[in-house]
Amino acid sequence: MGVLDDCYNVADFRRAAQKRLPKSLFEYIDRATEDEVAVRNNRDAIERIRILPRAPLDVSNRELGSTLLGKPMGMPLVIAPTGAAGLMWFEAELCLARAAKAAGIPYTMPTGSLVSFERVAKEVGGRLWFQLYVWPNRQISYDLVKRVADAGAETLVVTVDTPVNPIREYNIRNGFGLPFRHSLTSLTDMTLHPRWLFGTLLKYLIADGMPKLRNHPAAFNDARTRPAIAPQLGLSDTVDIPEIHRLRAMFPGKLLVKGVMHPEDARNLVAAGADGVIVSNHGGRNLDAAMATFDALPAVVSAIGGKATVIVDSGIRRGLDIVKAIALGADAVQTGRATLWGASVGGEAGVTKVLDVLRGELSAGMANCGVRTIGQITADLLVR
Ligand SMILES: Cc1cc2nc3c(=O)[nH]c(=O)nc-3n(C[C@H](O)[C@H](O)[C@H](O)COP(=O)(O)O)c2cc1C
Fold first, then answer.
1. Which residues line ligand 1 (CB under 6 A)?
2. Which helix (H) or strand (E) holds 249?
3. HSE of 213 in the Cβ direction (CA atoms, 13 Å)?
4. Mind spelling out the 3-state secondary structure of 162-220?
């Protein structure tokens, strides 16, 4: 029996990832910010939702497909951007993109990736979205937007909920940081996880030295030039609506804004030309007092009033969570940790299995609610 055979749900993948990954990497994925209130709150809000199912009904031949931004989806799910995914499994970005393509869903590549966007576009293709952290050096950011547009990015996802470095003490204690470096603590941690050490880190070292952030300019990956350029490529605390206007004008594809919680911001962003918003609190990783995304979602949906796309994330662990999100008015959900745990445990096969598990749960959830299609999942199912 392989590890994947023992994983029946997302929680199993989390436990398997904990065994394979060094503690520093497992905690980087799993944990959140400060006292980790927001991450619990997200789950509480999802688990509080009650459904009043309909029966008896013929719910055979269920159809999980839907449409997002004008294109068909295998199911209403998008793989969210998770920075440095390639640290968990050798070139995990390619694995995530391949599994997404096979499932007929988009993969969002984050700015911070160990494989370049161009390489994923060339070697995998499919519906590729690119997540942008707008850097303080705007010109280098705009050059990156042009690069991914030229390489065929379908959608630009601009993340706006991370103006400063989040407070995550566990990363400091564990010696985790990007670019990837080693300390006595992290070396011990790595040595205690030989499957990861040989299956992931060693492969990078043999191929091309320490893992590098491939969407960043080359100067960032060279220890001699990094100190001068790194501050220009950090987080920016000056991203505002005019900036979204500028990005809208320069990117030819769809534009989504990620990390939107307030209905007024959603309305303003759509007025600024965004094709939609992603209701997200970054998986509870940034603002520890953030409202749960499932609590914020209904007001955003009604503010947008069907004029643009609404996606929600932060806390999706079961297919039934997707049913709840759609019933609350979302067009689709995103998974961050779930699919990254899959990649951490089994690369492409691991991500594929996580997607299969979620698809199976979504299908069962729909049958149990008395619906056959995604379109039939409406607010009528919700207990108010
Ligand atoms: C390890 C990790 C890295 C992440 N990196 C990014 C990132 O680079 N950019 C971004 O917009 N969101 C990032 N996120 C947030 C995800 O895109 C997503 O909003 C969040 O994971 C959703 O919550 P979930 O993990 O409970 O599914 C990251 C999340 C995790 C877990």
1. 28-29, 80-83, 110, 112, 131, 159, 258, 280, 282-283, 285, 313-316, 335-338, 340
2. helix 241-250
3. 24
4. CCCCCCCHHHHHHCCCCCCCCCHHHHHHHHCCHHHHHHHHHHHHHHHCCCCCCCCCHHH
Whether 193 is a known active-site residue: answer no
Find all residues with CB under 8 Å of 5, minimum gap 6, and list them: none
β strands within the chain, DSSP E: 66-68, 71-73, 77-79, 107-109, 128-132, 155-159, 254-258, 276-279, 309-312, 332-335
Whether residue 81 contacts residue 131, with contact meaning beta carbons closer than 8 Å, is answered with yes
CATH architecture of 4-234+251-381: Alpha-Beta Barrel (3.20)
The answer to whether the predicted template modeling score (pTM) of the entire model surpasses 0.90 is yes
CA-nearest residue for atom 4, ligand 1, is 82
**Amino acid (1-letter code) at residue 70:** G
Tokens found for residue 127: 């519906």
Tokens of 6: 């023992």
Say how far apart CA 70 and CA 327 lie, in whole Å: 20
Residue 333 pairs in a beta bridge with 77, 312
Q: Which amino acid is at 51?
A: I
Residue 223 one-letter amino acid = A
Using 50, 70 and 90 to split pLDDT, how confident is the model at 306? Answer: very high
Q: What is the pLDDT of residues 140-166, one digit of tens each?
A: 999 999 999 999 999 999 999 999 999
Please give the number of the atom of ligand 1 that sits closest to the Cα of 159: 11
Residue nearest to atom 30 of ligand 1 (CA): 82
